[in-house]
Specification:
Elements (H helix, E strand, L loop, with lengths): L1 H53 L4 H26 L5 H17 L1 H16 L7 E4 L2 E8 L3 E5 L5 E5 L8 E5 L1 E10 L5 H14 L10 E7 L4 E10 L3 H18 L22
Antiparallel strand pairs: 1-2, 1-5, 2-3, 3-4, 6-8, 7-8
Length: 279
């Protein structure tokens, strides 16, 4: 029994040594080809990424294209290296195809997200830094991955959306800014033009309020207790809350400082007194 096992070991050892002696140069050549291929793939990938960045192409698309080129080049040189040592790649290709089919059936949801991610990267309905609203969720685009997109809202909360829920939906894109609305009432006998000028000055003086689109101030409606002035302005999406609170505070201060009356809700009730003739 032991002699038989020793013979088997010797047999495999002789086969390996014979293979190494016969194909030693091919093996060295294959290893050299593989190392050269890795170096070329890295260089070409970096070159493509640098070229796309110089042309201000979206960073997500840049990373995707450069990585795809790198993987394709590595696979090409790996096939060449395997052929150098006499290994046919046809069975491997068939096995990879069968495995890909099985994996595709098992991961349809994930693959649909990847497909949607490719569509987003190719069509670029939005880019990193834009503010979007889709399916009732809004925020500034932080990253765009193949499988999902991450938004960050004004509360600094990260929102992860699978890409399949973005493609095919109605997308509102306000780029890097979001619209903020505010209102304040003044008395009917107050100077509305002066109040509008003061509010415009507050908005123009605030550093986070965008100049383009320009802020808008005017009369929104005529309420029961006074005239409602409305102001609309654009601010960076991640600065909505702090900017809105600061602007509202400054608007209230300048209106009060100008002795413009801010009415409170009131209602006039008239009581009709009737004489009881039967008393």
């Amino acid at each position: 029994m032991i002699d038989s096992e020793i013979q088997q070991v010797e047999k495999y050892y002789n086969l390996i040594m014979e293979y190494l002696v016969t194909y030693s140069m091919q093996i060295l050549g294959a290893i050299l080809i593989l190392f050269i291929g890795l170096w070329i793939a890295q260089k070409v990938s970096n070159m493509v990424a640098g070229l796309m960045q110089r042309h201000n192409i979206d960073i997500t698309l840049t990373n995707f294209v450069s990585n795809v080129i790198k993987v394709l080049l590595i696979i090409m040189f790996l096939v060449i290296a395997l052929g150098k040592i006499g290994i046919s790649v046809t069975p491997f290709v068939a096995a990879i195809g069968a495995a890909s089919l099985g994996a595709g059936l098992a991961m349809q949801g994930m693959l649909s997200n990847y497909g949607a991610g490719l569509a987003i990267i190719a069509t670029r309905p939005f880019v990193v830094g834009d503010t979007i609203e889709v399916k009732g969720v809004s925020g500034q685009v932080k990253t765009i991955e193949l499988g999902h997109t991450i938004l960050i809202n004004e509360e600094k909360v990260e929102i992860t959306i699978p890409n399949k829920h973005i493609v095919g939906e109605i997308i509102h894109n306000s780029f890097s800014y979001s619209l903020v609305k505010g209102e304040i009432d003044i008395a009917y006998d107050a100077n509305a033009d002066l109040a509008i000028e003061l509010i415009e000055k507050v908005l123009n003086d605030h550093e986070l309020v965008s100049d383009s689109p320009h802020a808008q101030v005017g009369i929104e409606r005529f309420a029961e207790s006074g005239v409602t002035l409305s102001y609309r302005f654009w601010v960076p999406t991640t600065k909505i809350i702090e900017t809105k609170l600061a602007v509202n505070r400054n608007v209230f201060k300048v209106i009060q400082g100008a002795d413009i009356e801010i009415p409170f809700p009131q209602r006039i009730v008239t009581l009709n007194q009737t004489n009881d003739k039967g008393a």
